[in-house]
């Protein structure tokens, strides 16, 4: 049984548009960089694409009913920018959530840039930030009477690194350090959107506590550099209004826009990172964390990392740190419905979150990644993160043991 979280603490689940919706040509949706990337041979496992995914675009009522059965307070989903010309789907989705007593928490950008904008330079082009603000304003006008809290971007660091530096995600560019302007344009997009959206605004960052591989000075220095790129490049500007390194493309006034006050910071946590010095094109490399169990994805399971991360953020940013929501945490499992490893993973991470809360971190909520098995980016459908399993041939949804576990925990909490 989990320790008691305070009254008002929000428990939810997360998904994202391209990973679950399918229907990539319905109702005027434009192509996105993920359509292009996934349809290019060799980019995804098995050539998998999000063309159909969980067919959530057509099956959303059934999926929302699962949320009710699970008993969550809130649902974090993302709005597909390529659907900006016709937002009817999200209009219905929001109404469907509210009718079921579930608070909608939309993310405006979970990596699915319209291909037309990529063709004009994508996030290397400053104009994309302004286009994002226009899109955000448009969504705000349509849904702002019912949605009161928004996440602008999901994990800008992963989008910059995998999408523009290493090319393992869309748009598949391999610019290495020349990808840095992407960070600034994404953060500027966040700030501009924060100024136009009606209601409370958050940014979701992927954060990882970084540990040096040894006591060597070189490994310590490499770990600090990695921490700069992964964590501080995206946390410092929104909380302190500064970059931890030289970032090209910054104009007068940009940092004030980026530091527009946020209601809360969203944190996606999966694992810590152990770093050694390297002489390659980058001065660091990841090394395995000895002794840690791994998920089906091979990611180390280190729940204390979440405690260290949250208490470390409080130490680093002090008064500048807004309240925090864990907007993603979960694991891939290959156990089918008997997903004991996922129960253990979530149980341990919720406990670590609770300890951080007890030790003074202003943590307001926790969202599990994910409701459904889905399109796990370049790993296709192989990695299964769902509390609910999906048979992608038939679209049949099956509740896993972890679904029942979380449902029972939430029921107990309500009955108290
Ligand atoms: C995060 C992404 C999410 C999902 C999980 C496993 O980095 O935000 O879409 O892929 O990892």
Classify the beta-strand content into a percent band.
15-25%
Largest sheet: 8 strands, parallel, barrel
Structural class by SSE content: alpha/beta
Radius of gyration: 20 Å
- The CATH homologous superfamily is called Glycosidases
Overall number of domains: 1
Global geometry: globular
H and E order: EHHHEHEHHEHHEEHHEEEHEHEEEH
Q: Which ligands does the model contain, each kind named once?
A: beta-D-fucopyranose
Terminal CA distance: 13 Å
Number of helices: 13
Low-confidence stretches: none
Helical proportion, percent range: 25-40%
Beta strands, count? 13
CATH architecture: Alpha-Beta Barrel
Report mean pLDDT, rounded to a whole number: 98
CATH topology grouping: TIM Barrel
Query: What is the name of the CATH class?
Result: Alpha Beta
* Largest sheet, spatial ordering of strands: 1-2-3-4-5-7-10-11
Walkthrough of the structure:
This protein has a single domain (10-415), classed as Alpha-Beta Barrel (TIM Barrel), CATH 3.20.20.80. The mean pLDDT is 98. The protein contains 13 helices and 13 strands. The chain is 39% helix and 16% strand. It has 416 residues and is α/β, with parallel strands linked by helices. The strands form 3 sheets. The chain has an 8-stranded parallel barrel with strand order 1-2-3-4-5-7-10-11, surrounded by 5 helices. A hairpin with a 4-residue loop joins strand 12 (388-391) and strand 13. Bound molecules: beta-D-fucopyranose.
């Amino acid at each position: 049984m989990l320790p008691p979280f305070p009254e008002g603490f929000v428990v939810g689940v997360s998904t994202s548009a391209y990973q679950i919706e399918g229907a990539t040509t319905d109702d005027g949706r434009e192509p996105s960089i993920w359509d292009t990337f996934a349809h290019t041979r060799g980019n995804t496992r098995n050539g998998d694409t999000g063309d159909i995914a969980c067919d959530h675009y057509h099956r959303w009522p059934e999926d929302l009913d699962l949320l009710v059965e699970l008993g969550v307070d809130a649902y974090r989903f993302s709005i597909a920018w390529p659907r900006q010309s016709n937002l009817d789907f999200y209009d219905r989705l929001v109404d469907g959530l509210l009718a079921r007593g579930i608070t909608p928490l939309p993310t405006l950008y979970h990596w699915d840039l319209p291909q037309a904008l990529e063709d004009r330079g994508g996030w290397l082009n400053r104009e994309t930030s302004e286009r994002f603000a226009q899109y955000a304003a448009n969504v705000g006008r349509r849904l702002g009477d019912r949605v009161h809290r928004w996440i602008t971007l999901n994990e800008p660091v992963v989008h910059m690194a995998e999408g523009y530096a290493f090319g393992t995600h869309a748009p598949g560019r391999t610019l290495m350090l020349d990808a840095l302007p992407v960070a600034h344009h994404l953060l500027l997009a966040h700030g501009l959107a924060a100024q136009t959206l009606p209601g409370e605004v958050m940014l979701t960052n992927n954060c990882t506590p970084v540990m040096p591989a040894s006591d060597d000075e070189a490994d310590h220095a490499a770990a600090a550099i990695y921490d700069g790129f992964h964590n501080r490049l995206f946390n410092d500007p929104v909380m302190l209004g500064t970059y931890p390194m030289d970032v090209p493309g910054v104009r007068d006034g940009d940092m004030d826009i980026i530091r527009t006050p946020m209601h809360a910071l969203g944190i996606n946590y999966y694992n810590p990172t152990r770093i050694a010095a390297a002489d390659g094109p980058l001065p660091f490399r990841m090394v395995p964390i000895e002794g840690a169990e791994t998920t089906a994805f091979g990611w180390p399971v280190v729940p204390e990392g979440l405690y260290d991360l949250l208490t470390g953020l409080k130490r680093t940013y002090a008064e500048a740190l807004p309240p925090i929501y864990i907007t993603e945490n979960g694991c891939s499992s290959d156990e089918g419905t008997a997903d004991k490893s996922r129960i253990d993973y979530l149980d341990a991470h919720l406990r670590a979150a609770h300890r951080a809360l007890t030790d003074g971190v202003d943590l307001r909520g926790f969202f599990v990644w994910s409701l459904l098995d889905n399109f796990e980016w370049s790993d296709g459908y192989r990695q299964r993160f769902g509390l609910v399993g999906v048979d992608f041939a038939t679209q049949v949804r099956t509740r896993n043991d972890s679904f029942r576990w979380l449902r029972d925990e939430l029921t107990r909490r309500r009955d108290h």
